[in-house]
Amino acid sequence: MQAPPLSTTAAPAASASLASGGTHPVPEFDPSTLTLRERLARVAPYFWGQQRWMWALALATTLLGAATEPFIPALLKPLLDNGFTEGTLNLWLVPLFIVGLFFIRGLSQFAGQYALSRIANDGMLRLRRDLFERVQQAQMGFFGRHSASSLSNTVVYEVQTGASELVSAFLVISRDGFTLVALLAYLLYLNWQLTMAVAVIVPGVSWIMKTLSRRLYRITKSSQAATDSLAYVVEENVLAHRMVRLHGAQQAQGARFFALSEQLRGLNIKSTIASAAMTPTTQLLAAVALSAVICIALWQGRNSAGAVSVGSFVAFISAMLMLIAPLRRVADVAKPITRGVAALERGLALLEGSLAEQGGTQRPSPVRGALQFESVSLRFSEDAAPALREVSLHIAPGQIVALVGSSGAGKTTLVNLLPRFLSPSSGQVLLDGVALSDWDLAYLRQQFAMVTQDVVMFNDSVAANIALGQPLDEAKVWQCLEAANLTEHVRQLPDGIHSVVGHNAGQFSGGQRQRLAIARALYKDAPILILDEATSALDTESERLVQEALTRLMQGRTTLVIAHRLSTIEHADHVVVMQQGQIVEQGTHQDLLAQDGLYARLQAYSA
């Protein structure tokens, strides 16, 4: 059985965003309604599939190790009856038996643990791969429902915890379960009447495990939610550390963190209470059984002379006492199973609870860059005001179009429709006469390059950031850096274009990061360019260098420019003025100034 494919089950959102391609709200699935067996069945495919030989090795070695357990108390009977009492035991057999026994046990334990470790890590690798692919392929609304800290916690930590806990639990169940069976079989062989007194504790232990495991599952799910909330507070404070200090909000944020920490602490204590209660309860039942065995053995010895020899009795008591340790470990296994299943379920919920982006099959070539917006409207939710209202716009290939208007006018929303980061609620957008929904999605996005105010860089080399997603050509990287006015700075770095830029290129200035983004767009060489506030918040010199680079970048491309500083878009072929999600004016810069309308007022404000 292979690992299950990425599910296309509808997302478990309380409400589906129409803007991000959702259709209708889907009730969230509650895994707590499943039995433990059903929950295990959901995660099993990732740890079975290609691991049959490893499972066979683990099972065989575990059985072999468990089979050696009864030989330890079995040795006591001939030692006491033949060795000490009668003196007929061959001495050389004792070290041979003991050394051989422990050699076999050690070898089987090593092989079993190795096999289970391979199973756990291979299964974890497959599940992580599927999870990361789903994060990369999920609809855009998915990222509004999950925080970055929650996703990283699930993909990195929960999967590892779940796999480790489950395989560890299986190791305990298989090794100690088989050990219990082997010891019980030996006890039946020695004295079935005494063994029946031991068997009475099995239903009791089973009931304890079932009851407490249910409680542990509920507590674990609550702990996961509390951990996510705590991680999110840390994430917020790391990202907004300047604002927190500027506004003196450390105490308030500390109070948030402490309250969530207290909640998590309480849940952890409850979990400890539930799991810790298993061991003493199980040991109490074992003590009752031991008392009964001793009493029955003494009664048999008094009423049936010679029925129970000293060696037999000691071997029986030793084997029975050896039951306690594996019995206690089996009783404690409910916590790792519950924790492991809950952790892995989180990953499966991520797979099953999100829709992958869907595209068409059209791959027109060559792409000219003609864009059409036909009566496009968009709402982010059913009860929200429209972000776009009946927008119609035609853009010719190679034309430079500027989108202007006050904040919230819908400019960024409009351009985000083009690479299908958003989907219209009504109307359609066409590229070269083909509706965007009919284009192959990956091919469609190859036709766009984007430079925004919020530059995103990866903790990789300069070259890797510029050639992002494409084969690396060092000569082309240097050409793009030259065109972006960044060659001089990069040559001064320790390893040139192979220097690592750090977290989001933190060692670069704002203007340099902006020019890195321009170099990336130049490298992609897409026919359509989107510039969203690409020169805002820059000093005069940085803006001059960035503007020069942008001028080179826009040559021969269909370009949409969003800018608050209207002086930067006077060169545009066409200016579109937006207000409250609608186009209210459009024309050339000079024509709009002559109309003395909204554009003229915006121009006067920005002067």
Q: Could you please describe the fold and organization of this structure?
A:
The structure is a single chain. With 607 residues, the protein is of the alpha/beta class. It is built from 22 helices and ten strands. A six-stranded mixed beta sheet has the order 6-7-8-3-9-10. Strand 9 and strand 10 form a beta hairpin. Helix 3 runs antiparallel to helix 12 and helix 8 packs antiparallel against helix 11. The longest helix has 45 residues. The chain is elongated and about 120 Å long.
List the keywords.
607 residues, six-stranded mixed beta sheet, alpha/beta, 9% strand, four-stranded antiparallel beta sheet, disordered N terminus
Class per helix and strand makeup = alpha/beta
Report the count of strand segments: 10
Query: Could you tell me the strand content as a percent range?
Result: 5-15%
Distance between the termini: 68 Å
**Helicity level, as a percent range?**
55-70%
Biggest β-sheet strands, sense, barrel: 6 strands, mixed
Q: Number of helical segments? A: 22
Mean pLDDT figure = 78
Taking strands numbered 1, 2, ... along the chain, how are they ordered across the largest sheet? 6-7-8-3-9-10
Could you name the ranges where pLDDT drops below 50 across 5 or more consecutive residues? 1-29
